[in-house]
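Hello,

Our lab assistant flagged a job as stuck in the queue for most of the afternoon. It eventually completed. Since we weren't sure the result was trustworthy after the delay, we are filing this so someone can double-check. Below is the sequence as submitted and the structure that was eventually returned. Let us know if re-running is recommended.
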Amino acid sequence: MTAALAPISLAELDAAASLQTRIDRKYLVPTRALPALLDALDPGVRALEIDGERVFAYESVYFDTPALTSYLGAARRRRRRFKVRTRTYVDSEQCWVEVKTRGPRGATVKTRLPHEATGRTELDDPAIRFTTGVLDGLLDGPMAPTLVSTYDRVTLHVPATGPGPDSRTTIDTALSWTDADTGRERVLVGLAVIETKTGSTPSSTDRLLWRQGHRPVRISKYGTGMAVLHPDLPSTPWRRVIDRHVG
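-- returned structure --
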């Protein structure tokens, strides 16, 4: 899918566009439209390549309190909302516990700590201390796994075309959601989730997507997945995407 793009190593990508604080824009694009999109990318765009591979398997395990504080914070658009997950890079067996919070002007702030991949479905003592410290009083109970998402990801380095930093674009396919308690599963069929991770200025990928008729949508791997698997939960932010694309 990205054979025509020049490669970039992980070290180069992290140095050029680490973007732990960023503006995220998400798009749902039919997988059949991806070849034309990739062909039209800025010539300077490069694809992350590790050991000759460019498509990598990811697994995220999301954690929440018994009252679903994380989910409901997003569903009700609370200012101090957050997500807690373990993120496992399946091919390399590297794992992190990650906390995502809201920064100024809607920016996403991600902080993370190394975690044992074999224990990715639980938060050990260091992970609990880390999570509690980052969230600073937001938790109203112990956290347990609620949702597992898996997908394949291509990551692109997108050079800046004006003031501001370089950015990243990720293309996720074969997205599936699994309920951590019941094992019930739903799959997003025929669609890729494209996410641009930029500074305040939209990237050349954003502008290309707009020219091709794609507009940002509200989709959250955690929020949307929970709403699909638990239709009794409030789901206003993701209802349009669910009704139109997931069903």
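-- support follow-up --
The delay was a queue issue, not a problem with the job. The result is valid. The radius of gyration is 18 Å. The CA atoms of residues 40 and 208 lie 8 Å apart.
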